[in-house]
Amino acid sequence: MHIALLSRNRNLYSTRRLVEAAEQRGHTARVVDTLRCYMSITSHHPSIHYKGEEIEHFDAVIPRIGASVTFYGCALLRQFEMMGTYVINDNVSITRSRDKLRSLQLLSRKGLGLPITGFAHSPDDIPDLITMVKGAPLVIKLLEGTQGIGVVLAETNQAAESVIQAFMGMKANIMVQEYIKEARGADIRCFVIGDKVVASMKRQAADGEFRSNLHRGGTASVIRITPEERSTAIRAAKAMGLRVAGVDLLRSNHGPVIMEVNSSPGLQGIESATGLDIAGMIIEHIEKNAVPARKAPPKPKG
Ligand code: ADP
Description:
Blueprint: E1 2-6, H1 13-24, E2 28-32, E3 37-40, E4 47-50, E5 53-54, E6 60-63, H2 70-82, E7 86-87, H3 91-98, H4 100-109, E8 117-118, H5 126-132, E9 138-142, E10 151-154, H6 157-169, E11 174-178, E12 186-193, E13 196-204, E14 219-222, H7 227-240, E15 244-252, E16 255-262, H8 268-274, H9 278-289
Parallel strand pairs: 1-2, 1-6, 6-7
Antiparallel strand pairs: 3-4, 4-5, 8-11, 9-10, 9-11, 12-13, 12-15, 13-14, 15-16
Helix pairs in contact: 1-9, 2-3
């Protein structure tokens, strides 16, 4: 197979590992810079051009689209989909997963465990919003933050009210969430491929920090997850429509609650914590599921 990796940087660990895994399994892989692709949108011959030439045929596309280029990256991915190319995660699922509120709304429809979460527009509604999520301490989150940036713990109702007012004043979209204190700064990353959790790790926040993101100094270790956590992760990825996903859970007093579902989960932390060849498993999934474009007419999703 000939596989495209949509990535801005060929030196990133995940990008390198996916190329390596594809080549090890006898495929060819090309790293394609998402922002250097451009598209011709026509009914007869929709195409993608890259640095002056029409891009070659790919049997599969692995999108690794950074949060800052979601809009352009998803438009490009959609173009591949319109051309009938197999994509491991499609543009609609990625767009969904990038909006934390939209994701939680979809997950709630499936009855999955979530922290109590509130969303409001008017500053007049802040006091009731705080009561709704059971009062301080509570967590305030920017809807489109990543790597723990834009996630704030407010210890008192007064602090919560001022921070929410400040964010609203800046027209930033935020949600307010019950603080899962009993998780004690730890979360669980479940790596889902297809309908399986292929690896999981616990991330523990650094001392004095409640956010367990590895980018915020968290440390990773292997963990055995419960059957309930496993099925929650699988159902969450499915609800989002993602074939490859990093599902982050917290252990709460009322069972696993989902923090978020990541559509481009990093490979470095999970491969080094578990010693597993996750990149190889992603390529294997593509081998089993990518149907050559010529045999399967495209079913475009808008
Ligand atoms: P990001 O997408 O920026 O990583 P998250 O929503 O995953 O944002 O939050 C970052 C981290 O902060 C989580 O991994 C978790 O450790 C901690 N955290 C977030 N929300 C809560 C919460 N409601 N209760 C307890 N800890 C939380």
